[in-house]
Amino acid sequence: MSENKPVLPPEWDDPDLPEWTKDMIDAAEFRVGDKMIRPAAGYLGPNGMVRGRPPSRGRAKQQVTLRLDPDVIERFRAEGPGWQGG
After folding, report:
1. How many domains does the chain have?
2. Alpha-carbon distance 19 to 48, whole Å?
3. Does residue 74 fall inside a structural domain?
4. pLDDT by residue (tens digit) across 62-85?
5. Residues paired with 35 in a beta bridge
6. Which end of the chain is more exposed for a tag (fewer CB within 10 A), N or C?
7. pLDDT bucket at 1, cuts 50 / 70 / 90
8. Please, which residues bridge with residue 38 across strands?
9. Burial of 27 (C-beta count, 10 Å sphere; 0-12/13-18/19+)
10. Three-class DSSP category at 30
């Protein structure tokens, strides 16, 4: 009897993908169906290196520019350090 092998989508059959390392497996999120078994323990970027900010899990924030009267800015600055991030 022959063994049934799962058929993967063509995009999964990429010979240029690197082999998974132990660090990559240790950092990976594991799920069975929709149930999370273990959350991700970090972000591994290209070449298995942890670099930069991890990808956003929700909607990405957008940068905006806002022009305010100098008096308004001074009022916010009077709040002390961290006034920009309220």
Report:
1. 1
2. 10
3. no
4. 888 989 999 999 998 998 888 887
5. 32
6. N
7. low
8. 30
9. middle
10. strand
